[in-house]
Structure formats: C-alpha cells, structure tokens
Design brief:
The chain is α/β, with parallel strands linked by helices and 367 residues long. It is built from 14 helices and twelve strands. This is Sulfate ABC transporter substrate-binding protein.
Length: 367
C-alpha cells in the first residue's frame, strides 16, 4: 500500500475516534461554559449567537487559549454570548469536531491544519491567526545517546503518525542521510508513535531511548533524567516556526465575522498580557491545565517548558508552507495547494486597532 494512501486511511480511522465524548460537544472533553468569567451588565449577544464553541489542547503550546480562558478574556469580548470550550488530545479529533460543527474556532498545530484543508479541497477551515512558536525538543537518555550521530539505531518517540513533530523528526532524519519508512517508522532510526500522555513512562522504563515532542512532555522527560539534545527552533530561520495557530470553520467565519473578531481580540489581548507578565501568565496557564486535567504541572516541568515557547499573533505562514513540503518529502502528503488557507483580514483589523504591526500570509492568503 502506498505511504500516502495508508496515511490517509490512518487519519480517517483516528478522526473517527472521539475522546471522552460528551453530549454538550460530541468530541473532546470538558465542553462547558466559562463559569469563571462574568458577563458584564448590559452586555449583548454577538451576531445573535447564544455561544461560540472554542477548542484547544491541554498543552502549554496552546497557552494563548489557556490564559485567555483562565483570565476570562474570551467571555469579556463575547459579551452575553457564552464562551463554550472543548479540550482535545489529537489534531484529527479536533478537525472532525470543527467539520461537524461541534466547535467553531480552535487552537491547533500546523499539520492537522494542512491535512484538514487539503482533504476538504480547501472548503473546511481557514487559519485566521497565530498563537505560538517553538516549544519542541529532542530529549534523549544521556546514557544511551551522547551526540546527534548516536540517534542512529535508537528508538525515538513522536506523538502520532503524520503529526507536526513526527513530520519534523522524519525530515531531520532525512537531512542526516538516514533512511526510515515513514509509514512503519522502521529504518536507520526506529520512530515509535506514542501518545504524549504515556511517553514519560515509556522513557522511564527504557522502552524508548528518546522523543521528539512538544512541551510540556519534553520537560517531563528531562525531569525523568533526560537531556535536551536538540531544540527544534535552532533549525529554523530566526529560530521561529509555527507550532500552534487558530482555525475557524469557513461557514462560521462567513456568517459570524463579529464573533470571530471578538475571539481574535481576546487572543491578541492574551498574547500581549502573556508577553508582558510571563510569570503571572505561566501561573494562569498552569491553573487552567489543572482545571482541565485535574493536575497542575510541577515547577521543574512548568518553568523550562514555558520559557521555551514564544507567543505571537503572527501565524508564521512561510514556516507552515515549509512544514507542508517536509510532509511531501516524507511521503506523507501529496503536493498540496495551500493557496487560500489563510484569511488574516480580521486579525490585521484587530492589530491595526491596537497600533500593532500587521502580519503576512506569505502568498497563501485569501485573494
């Protein structure tokens, strides 16, 4: 079976698996109203909507959404329209929720954004803003791996076949001149697809020798005795690459632009507050993680993880195009037509109103 066909089938299977399905949403977990944010007296509904359904991952790389929710920023901008939330563990499930209308807007990584856009022939989603850069590392067992060359012949975990980190690691392997079958993960390096939730245990018991993973998983591995062998940001121009962006259902964007603008205002406000108040923002993100998962991150994990992530309104569109080409080279994606994947019109309107610099779609915007 060709790698591209198998990859598509694997995505289709994954996308049909709901995570802790709840009647309120249908996908994801903890879909509920933001009870901590009070609606201002006299506030009105935006576009006549009762609610706007927002999705995100319980990862620090989704810190904009975590902080925006914890600080009540989304609810503030939405007025009497309730901010409802759903959390996800995997990109395909969030894309499925977006396509089904179970969420309207979501924070998500570049690979699922590309896959969702291309599989729908450009009809399902638009990327409407940036959120975060960085926060991805290759962490290894220093007893087994002392240099980058030592990675050859070892078992290295990535979160999921074809996800953002998996594609990045496969591309790095190719650049070393090593060979790996993208579908099976077998070759000069054994690529072991392992859920981030279980990766630290797999690392601790020695079933993997390292992992190319996002935060906070990377720092959890360091806390288990791992060593950061490579920070992915060092591989990119200006050490910046998209790790999280904001997507919206195209029909929702068309029908409710004021609601989209409200969410983007809150996102810009959240990023501004994060960058001005890093310690308070870190605490707020951790508090929301605890509310979502029932467990806060310890300081030895939280502190280095948060420090490695940059929060930005810029979607870093040129790097998304590069990541797509990496997936093509790995045989996980046919050459995509990404023209029109971005619509940054509303974001740039918000940024102009804030007196901030506008951002660019790198030729991939809506004409």
């Amino acid at each position: 079976m060709p790698a591209t066909t198998a990859f598509r089938r694997s995505l289709a299977v994954i996308a049909t698996l709901p995570l802790l399905t709840l009647a309120a949403c249908g996908y994801g977990s903890k879909a509920q109203s933001d009870d901590t944010a009070k609606v201002a007296a006299g506030a009105k509904k935006i576009d006549g909507l009762d609610s706007v359904k927002i999705g995100y991952f319980g990862n620090l790389t989704h810190g904009t959404a975590l902080v925006g929710r914890q600080q009540g920023l989304f609810q503030k901008e939405l007025g009497a329209t309730k901010a409802d939330y759903a959390t996800f563990n995997a990109g395909p499930s969030e894309i499925e929720a977006l396509n089904s209308g179970s969420i309207d807007i979501g924070w998500i990584g570049p690979s699922p954004s590309i896959n969702g856009y291309t599989k729908s022939n450009g009809k399902s989603l638009k990327i409407i803003g940036g959120s975060a850069s960085g926060g991805v590392k290759l962490v290894v067992d220093p007893k087994k791996i002392k240099s980058l060359q030592d990675v050859k012949g070892k078992k290295i975990a990535t979160p999921q076949l074809g996800n953002t980190q998996d594609v990045a690691f496969l591309n790095w392997i190719a650049e070393q001149g090593w060979k790996v079958d993208a579908q099976s993960g077998k070759g000069d390096v054994s690529v072991v697809r392992t859920d981030n939730k279980v990766t630290p245990d797999a690392f601790a018991n020695g079933s993997i020798d390292g992992a190319w993973v996002p935060e906070p998983t990377a720092s959890k591995l360091v806390a288990e005795g791992g060593k950061v062998l490579l920070d992915e940001s060092s591989l990119w121009p200006d050490k910046k690459f998209v790790i999280t962006n904001i997507i919206v259902r195209q029909s929702f964007l068309k029908e409710h632009p004021k609601a989209v603008e409200a969410v983007l205002k809150a996102s810009v406000e959240a990023n501004k507050w994060i960058n001005a108040n890093p310690e308070a923002a870190k605490a707020a993100a951790n508090k929301q993680l605890a509310a979502d998962s029932g467990k806060a991150l310890p300081a030895k994990v939280l502190d280095p993880a948060w420090k490695s992530i940059q929060f930005t309104d810029d979607p870093l569109a040129a790097t998304l195009d590069t990541e797509a080409q990496h997936a093509v080279k790995a045989g996980l994606l046919q050459q995509p037509d990404l023209k029109g994947i971005y619509d940054l019109t509303i974001l740039n309107k918000v940024l102009k109103a804030e007196g901030a610099s506008t951002v660019d779609a790198a030729g991939l915007g809506t004409s």
